[in-house]
Protein: Amino-acid permease inda1
Amino acid sequence: MAYLSMMIVVWNIMNNLAEIVTYLPMKGITIPYFVKRFVDPSLAFAVGWNYWYAYAILVAAEATAGAILVDYWSTPVPDAVWITIFLLVILFLNIVAVGIFGEAEFWFASIKFITIMGLIVLGFVIMFGGSPNDQGRLGFRYWNDPGAFTPYLVDGSTGRFLAYWTAFVRAGFAFITSPELIALAAGETIAPRRNIPKAARRFVWRLAIFYGFGSFIIGVIVPSSDSRLLSPSSNATASPFVIGIARAGIKGLNHVINAAILTSAWSAGNAFLFSGSRVLYGMALSGDAPKIFGRTNRNGVPWVAVLATWSIGLLAYLNVSNTGAQVFTWFSNISTISGFIAWIVVMITYIRFRKALVYNNLLHTLPFKSPFQPYFVWFILGLVCVLTLTNGFQVFFPSNWSVSSFLAAYITLPIFLVLYLGHKLWFRTKWMIKVENIDVISGKKEMDEICELDEKPIPKNWLQKAWFWVA
Structure:
């Protein structure tokens, strides 16, 4: 339920961005660029640094996750060694071996795709009684005992709702910064006004398959009471899929899957370091960050920005003095709240963009229009604001109060406000660009002329027709 709910939020964010970038699919565009153009330079400055902060924290989160996954094998090697290896490899791929970055990501992504599809199929096999041990047909056994809902903090229906709401907030971590990739890719995409809407429409179905079925399978093959699940009280942790395979008695496969998931964490850390460094590099070029972060080597790699982003990943060494579960929760809270703030800014930008189109009588020129707008974006904006404010509601229960958990859940909010208000006071920018002054004209004619040259490919046979539909 939580993942399905979050999918609706992400679908809206994806459509908001798709409408904007198909209207202006300019090369080198970023989210802060649209925020500065349609809303306010101060908000663009704050959200740019917020994105960098989120990506940098995600590097630390993935390094921590990597140490947790390796700990499944109970190696005598300290966690600090695995974190060091993890961080050095992604640094190497981002600076020294940048030429094979794309190749590495291709193989990482292929492993992830094959693994998750195989796990979903295997999960259904286990569910219907295909496991080699004496589990029998699981069906929905664990939905009855210990139960599909585990009351959280309090008993009864309130406890069940709090459990759902906590899962809803936590599900955001899986999607943070994902929809934004469509905006970054639009300027580099062939035929953006044909391919970006196609990607946006199919994005929700891909989420349903990978996250919807994935979370469903986890709830079917693993009881919530399993002691090996990630929790503050237990550091003998593993992926729920690995636990489910081990419970089914499938020997050896749990180690293969754990290794595959480890490569996924490595891939994510690699991509987050790349994205975060490019955000910082872009801000340096636009004057929103110190010029030193705009330095590049002879291969064009912004090595100073890469090192600055990577250095935040060193926070993963907190894992040495705390449980991996606790540290991972801190990082996931910090990055999730940053992602929610970024989504709020994206929706505000979309609302201003749409109002400017209406004012200029240009709404009918949108190459791609998503359904239920503008009402849907207002509903999701209110929902994400509530999610942001309740991200760490658990700490306000007397038995759960923790200064570290409170800071992890809410420290990003004052940081963002300081960046926003500080820039506004320093540069004396207006509160918000007036609708009549928002520029929705510049670049539009040039983009129209370029996109008119696009010729839709005509399939020669049924195989090509199927491929064009998929790709």
Notes: The domain at 1-470 is CATH 1.20.1740.10 (Amino acid/polyamine transporter I).
